[in-house]
């Protein structure tokens, strides 16, 4: 029954995700080394071009909902990967330490895409950006007469005026931090007679002074990309800016993505029964809470304090280098605590190496190719381009110690109840502690914490099912470490070193 329900969820999710592509022509766009994609009605016809830009650690796949929604409404939509992101091989100069250099690289790439995309339409141009790119599209459109309208989601609020950039829509999620909401209100307040009211348009489109604040209900920084309200407001704003009335399907794909990934996750449970048995008796630390809690808490407290004093920038991958070292240190401290708690005790039964290897490869293949291909097609870039692939084994040196120590500490016949979710919650709290200690360098880790939470839930289920089938914590530890290393290598921005 679970298998049938999982396959039905996968099929329904794929059907719903492909539906917005009906009637559209989708093709790559050559902009030098910049990967770009054009979405337009298959029926043809000249229309305004909308260049759509993703945020930090994102890729053009994340912006597909806006591209398909606007193309269904008759626009020509263009997505692309910024330098350092997705499959763009050019590093992001400056990183987070030199905002001027990084902004210059991002602005130059946006300008190149806009120049290549504008001739594809009727000569009229608009821009749409999310998070980091919200600020970039505003800066690029400032005082550029060819930019007839700009849509900014979840931006940090660069300097604007009452009439520049032209016809600016600012949207922010109701669950986003207060400073982002205040930045949005400040921008629109320049054109309003008093405090701006959400969903109220100020100024005039003909004069280029139109301004609007949208508070997207029930979403945070990533969820805003999939909200029907976000898509409808962006489409309506661009229709008004260009004097159009295009309609069509809103690609609010969050539910469809949930069906697809949920089906793939559910399918892993019956498939886990096919894994080979690796140990005759269940392995693991098997510590009760009285002995377990020091092992769990010490790494969470000590790791951010220790790394505050040590250099962590050794990989050409922004924030990924810190997260790699954080995992390695966390794992080493967990292993040391586990050794101390179990000193003098006899080691458990050994697992069969061949069975462990086969099970680990099977789990990793399913996570990376099964879930990974779905993510790469419909959510974000997940398959590392050649210039990123070499990072996987290096990051694995950090993720492997953490998963090995954590899986061993939380498994076993006498293991503390809820030990696994407890250690994952502590790990995420330690990341937030690291941000608090060095907010300027690590602030963007806050954005990935919700994504890490989802990954850890998935890894936890894989680990539980694998342990029940194989009797050993090792297959899931090896597979999950590889999957996280793969994800980090594929998604974190590449920078020069």
TrEMBL record:
- TM annotation in the entry: 322-341, 353-375, 387-405, 417-436, 442-462, 474-495
Instruction: Cite a single Pfam family from the UniProt record.
Output: Hydrolase_4
Under the heading InterPro entries, the entry gives: AB_hydrolase_fold (IPR029058), Carboxylesterase_BioH (IPR050228), Hydrolase_4 (IPR022742)
Species of the source = Dankookia rubra
Per UniProt, residues of the Serine aminopeptidase S33 domain are 49-155
State the name under which the record lists this protein: Alpha/beta fold hydrolase
GO MF, one annotated term? hydrolase activity
Keywords noted in UniProt: Hydrolase, Membrane, Transmembrane, Transmembrane helix
